[in-house]
Amino acid sequence: MFNVDEFFGLEKEVTTTQRKFDAVSYFSAKFPGIYVIRLFEKFTPLDVHFLPKQRVSVLCLGADCPVCARNNILFHEYGSEAVLNSDFIARQRRYVANIVDRTPSVVCPACGESVYKFLYKANMPCPQCGAAIPPQAETVVLDKVRLASFSKTFVEQLKVIATSVYDNNGNLKPITDFDIKIISAVVNGKTQLSPFPSDSVSEPPTIAPNAVFPHEKIAIKFSKEELLSVMHGAHYRDVLKARDTTTTTIPATEGITLDDSLKSEAENIVNVINEMFS
Ligand SMILES: [Zn+2]
Ligand SMILES: [Zn+2]
Question: 112-125 pLDDT, tens per residue?
């Protein structure tokens, strides 16, 4: 039977795919379970502030940072009590790197989206397209590059692993040569991650050179002026939009696409930051 929509490609969700391709894929071990990752690149330490009112994470601007400046004022005024002030927004150091996510995942036969196997329940709706994922759906190791950010404690644990795993000849094994299992568990209401070296033998992942994400994408990078207006109540999304219209010379029709992708990027960041800090 002739399908008009199929013929003209009207049912193909090009914009969705496009957006997914452009968007950063973040690694989050929020849900209790066992994750499998492979490290392959150096970590970048980055300082961020989580702005609780807008539930968004921004990069600290160091010596120029208005959030730190306000923290300092509060410190002078209230001493150690400053941290109790609702305007005090602590600086958090995160260790950021792209990782390969090797957690076994169940693939939605309808759209190709995946769900971690340990979270999968028979016929659960796909988070992407809503179709029921049947029990006979394929389980795969996605080997997907994602941008991860870890706490100092976690990275110190990784460092212990990196200095304590030897091969059969007694040589230290580079930590990039084996998988890391991460056990995520809720302890006293807080998500705690513990890394372990995986002894299962697996092929090294192949990583496309263009698959990695810039580390700074872990949070939104504002200028000092932009950050000040966010602190004074402007919505971060409006600030991003304003930047877009003042700096872009792209024709209006393309401008809409840019605006859209910016919005989805911002939403992406917000989602992952919520997960990381909740
Ligand atoms: Zn700062
Ligand atoms: Zn789906």
Answer: 999 999 999 999 99
- Cα of 5 to ligand 2 centre, how many Å? 20
pTM of the model: 0.76
pLDDT tens-digit map of 20-47? 345 889 999 999 999 999 999 999 999 9
Residue at 114 is within a domain: no
**Protein residues placing their CB within 5 Å of the ion ligand 1:** 60, 65, 67-68, 91
Residue 116 lies in a domain: no
- Per-residue HEC secondary structure of 185-217 comes to EEECCEEEEEEEECCCCCCCCCCCHHHCCCHHH
In the chain, the number of structural domains is 1
For residue 13, the CA-to-ligand 2 centroid distance in Å is: 13
Q: How far is the CA of 108 from the centre of ligand 2 (A)?
A: 5
